[in-house]
Write a structure and sequence with these properties.
By secondary structure, the chain is of the alpha+beta class. Helices cover 35% and strands 18% of the residues. The chain has a three-stranded antiparallel sheet with strand order 1-3-2. The radius of gyration is 16 Å and the shape is globular.
Length: 117
């Protein structure tokens, strides 16, 4: 009976999980580390993976506790762009030098990021 309840709870929890990916201004392994660390503390986030090559931030989250808009907003508050949202200028300024793509706050013109691998 306990095993049945455990399986039932597990299936129920998985129904509330969803994966989303955002195009971002990630540049280096420090970006990856910063984002993966910071977003894991966001309410409802189950896991975070940053793909530097594709410049994507993938997040598995609980749909009852957060949503893609909140996750994108949080990503900009860390200092990185998230799809159409621009990074918060003050947060961007506080990033390590290796995480900055130039003199300007990153925007959605991701072609320029390819020069900073």
């Amino acid at each position: 009976m306990i095993a049945l309840l455990t399986v039932s709870f597990s299936v129920s929890a998985q129904k509330n999980e969803k994966k989303v990916a955002f195009k971002s201004s990630v540049v280096c392994f420090m970006c990856k580390r910063t984002i993966e660390y910071d977003l894991t503390f966001e309410k409802g986030v189950k896991s975070v993976n940053v793909d530097l090559e594709k410049k994507l931030v993938e997040v598995l989250y609980n749909t009852k506790k957060t949503n893609p808009e909140e996750l994108k907003k949080r990503l900009t508050q860390i200092g990185y762009s998230a799809d159409e949202l621009v990074a918060d200028p003050k947060a961007y300024e506080n990033l390590p030098g290796c995480c900055k793509i130039g003199d300007e706050v990153p925007h959605k013109n991701f072609e320029e990021l390819d020069d900073h691998k």
